[in-house]
Amino acid sequence: MTIQKDILHWLLLFSLGDGLYGTQVSYIREIVQDREKNPLPGAPDFIPGIINIRSDVIKVIDIRRIIPLGEERAKKKIIVFIPEDIHSTRFGILVDEVYGIMEIPDKVISYLDRSDTKIQNNFMLGFIKISLDTFLHQNGRQYASGNDDLVWIDFEDLIKTIIDGDQADSIVFRLTALFNPQYLLSGEWKKSAGK
User: Fold this and answer.
1) 102: helix, strand or coil
2) pTM of the complete model
3) Which of 76, 38, 30 is nearest to 57 (CA)?
4) What is the dihedral angle through the alpha carbons of 16, 179, 94, 10, rounded to the nearest 10 degrees?
5) What are the chain's domains?
6) Interatomic CA distance for residues 79 and 94, integer angstroms
7) Per-residue pLDDT reduced to its tens digit, 58-74
8) Are 189 and 176 in contact (CB under 8 A)?
């Protein structure tokens, strides 16, 4: 009799606004401190500028420039994505805090039904109940069960949408659905998008 090991997902945990999020580490190149950005003429408002990291130019995305995210905090980190190839545009996203990598068993994930057309466009893969406090005070990367809601983000889809200029109009709706669904339901995002 063989014992089947549970499938584990290695997710980088971070916060943005009032939410707690995770994404697969395979899409992350590195995490750097926030820094002064050089303006990029003609860029959308949600790209406040570029930074240089070891001769690489990184376009920085600031979600707060698209939708309200609760109390404004000083952005502390930039999560830099792995480019698709050496010619791809490099992106990073501003977040409030990065907490580390948690090994999450597949069996504790509540997956979204991405075939449902009502929810497939919000970059979410699923939800996980964790204890951030327990995780932060333990040695290692083990899953810590608790009552904190963690949203698993599909960074691959997010990156492709940002890079694809033809999908630029949908980015506001999709990011709002992910990071501030109450704002989306209020209809206020339509007024902001129409500026």
Assistant:
1) strand
2) 0.81
3) 38
4) 80
5) 8-193 (2.40.50.180)
6) 7
7) 999 888 887 777 776 66
8) yes
